[in-house]
UniProtKB/TrEMBL annotation:
Region (Disordered): 1-109, 126-167, 467-512
Protein source organism: Orbilia javanica
Protein name listed in UniProt: DUF7924 domain-containing protein
Compositional bias (Polar residues): 1-17, 42-54, 467-483
Ranges annotated as biased composition (Basic and acidic residues): 18-32, 56-68
Upper classification of the organism: Eukaryota, Fungi, Dikarya, Ascomycota, Pezizomycotina
Classification via Pfam families: DUF7924
Organism domain of life: Eukaryota
Residue stretches making up the DUF7924 domain: 222-445
Length: 512
């Protein structure tokens, strides 16, 4: 039988088409293998179901949820699915939230008159997170450097820059803007200081003090002294008259003022342990703060979590590792240097000092007590003139700015009757203002919640520093302060801290 030509051509075309489809399928498989795309698996369908060899669609097993492909048509990433917490009242609490009695602490307290079981731990964690920035950990290299210099020898040459180098940065009027960007203003606030601080400044200037009988400021020697200091350098000015303008607290204590034994001073020492507002870090010609031994062991242990490793780290409450809460600084210049440089240096140093007190009071929610109150003083002088300033914070909600109040400016070389003003003022700061300031600091430290742990190695034991069990002459009145234990005994929604003190604080060791 003869084959029809048309049917033969159709069969040939069909065979050719089948070969082309097979070739295209092989090429597609090869491309998929090269690109890592395996393509559809045998028996899979586009809708996610499976089929067996005879083409019947297989349904997913009973109880198994069919996965649906994500919908990217809206251009949004797929939402995360949260695991539900079991045994919660509504059965819909998200993972990581507190369930049961811990869902609403205030509502739980109103119903049961007590806080949930883990509420104190949660508050303690929040407290630690909000105040962990009060110190900065030092790098290992810096720790080694300080241990080889500051801690192994009585002198600290690494802390003392040459006097000319100290002025770098401060000798520019632009430094005022740098300080302002950090919140320190070398001018008075529009609100000024409180009436109480005004009265304090007047009493510090007017209260009489005994002056040295035999000195270069003696009546018959004063004029000669001023003549010899004309054109003298800074070191000569400091040697001859600085202690007649700003007397040494430790020297006065040595001569019998025992209430000053709690004070520590620095002379041209860099404040490596403070957290400065900007660079360079403060290095006053003379500064006064409190010794570690000024505080009781319990008070210092309370401060220790906020100091880090106070021998190496930087902390808000320190100037150096042996001086805490500084409150007075002095900068000296010679006749060829403007006192504006000294004023800028003092502004930075006492801005750091004022912030330390504010941050301490913030720990117990009492920072409003310091609003517009003078918390530190500075004295700038050369061979003929003196400038005395006070420093105070102005709080506006969570914002705190630091301002300077002019107390007295005068030129003693032209008027011998004024030569003892700064000397008497400084002694009045030591005798009148400092005791009440220290008592106020102690009252706040006694209120800080116990048991706050930042995983810092405590150095109160075995550090080589003697720690007395009692404070020196000036102490806080136990009747007017609140102990740390009282903070956590009676907890109510209006208390500043709801952190009951733990039975024993944990001491965690850290490397370095």
């Amino acid at each position: 039988m003869a084959t029809h030509p048309i049917s033969t051509s159709r069969e040939g075309q069909s065979a050719s088409t089948d070969k082309n489809k097979a070739r295209e399928a092989d090429t597609g498989d090869l491309r998929n293998r090269k690109s890592g795309n395996k393509g559809p698996q045998p028996g899979s369908q586009s809708d996610g179901t499976c089929s067996n060899s005879d083409g019947r669609v297989l349904e997913p097993p009973e109880g198994k949820r069919q996965l649906e492909p994500p919908d990217y048509t809206a251009g949004q990433p797929p939402q995360k699915r949260f695991k539900l917490v079991k045994n919660s009242p509504e059965g819909a609490e998200l993972a990581g939230e507190y369930s049961g009695e811990d869902q609403d602490p205030i509502d739980y307290w109103t119903k049961t008159s007590r806080w949930p079981k883990d509420y104190a731990e949660r508050k303690k964690k929040d407290y630690k997170m909000s105040h962990s920035g009060l110190f900065r950990k030092a790098s290992n290299s810096l720790r080694r450097k300080r241990s080889e210099t500051e801690l192994s020898s009585p002198s600290t040459p690494s802390d003392q820059r040459p006097r000319d180098a100290k002025n770098i940065g401060y000798d520019s009027a632009r430094y005022d803007i740098i300080l302002e960007s950090g919140g320190v203003f070398m001018k008075p606030s529009p609100l000024g200081i409180t009436e109480g601080s005004k009265a304090t400044c007047k009493s510090l200037l007017s209260a009489d003090q005994q002056v040295p009988v035999d000195s270069l400021f003696r009546e018959d020697l004063f004029e000669i002294t001023c003549e010899k200091l004309t054109g003298a350098n800074e070191a000569r000015v400091m040697r001859d008259i600085t202690q007649l303008i700003v007397p040494s607290a430790e020297t006065l204590a040595t001569f019998g003022s025992r209430h000053l034994d709690i004070l520590s001073e620095t002379c041209n020492a860099g404040w490596n342990s403070c957290i400065p507002f900007t660079t360079p870090r403060p290095q006053p010609d003379y500064a006064v703060g409190f010794k570690r031994e000024a505080f009781t062991k319990a008070q210092f242990d309370t401060l220790l979590p906020f100091l880090g490793d106070f021998l190496c780290d930087q902390a808000c409450f320190m100037a150096t590792y042996f001086m805490f809460f500084p409150f007075l600084s002095c900068e000296v210049k010679c006749s060829g240097q403007p006192l504006e440089i000294a004023d800028r240096q003092n502004a930075h140093s006492m801005g750091v000092a004022t912030r330390a007190v504010v941050e301490l009071f913030k720990l117990v929610g009492r920072e409003q007590e310091l609003n517009r109150e003078i918390l530190a003083f500075s004295i700038s002088h050369d061979n003929g003139s003196v400038r005395i300033f006070g420093y105070y914070p102005v709080t506006d909600g969570d914002s705190v700015k630091y301002y300077r109040h002019q107390i007295r400016l005068y030129q003693f070389s032209a008027n011998p009757d004024l030569r003892w003003i700064a000397y008497k003022f400084t002694k009045n700061v030591y005798d009148i203002w400092m005791p009440s300031h220290f008592k106020r600091l102690c009252s706040v430290i006694d209120q800080i919640p116990a048991g706050v742990d930042f995983n810092v190695t405590p150095l109160s034991q075995g550090s080589g520093f003697a720690q007395g069990s009692e404070s020196a002459s000036v102490r806080s009145d136990p009747q007017s302060t609140h102990s740390g234990e009282a903070v956590g005994v009676d907890i109510s929604p209006n208390t500043s801290f709801a952190i009951p003190p733990p039975k024993k604080a944990k001491n965690m060791d850290t490397s370095g």
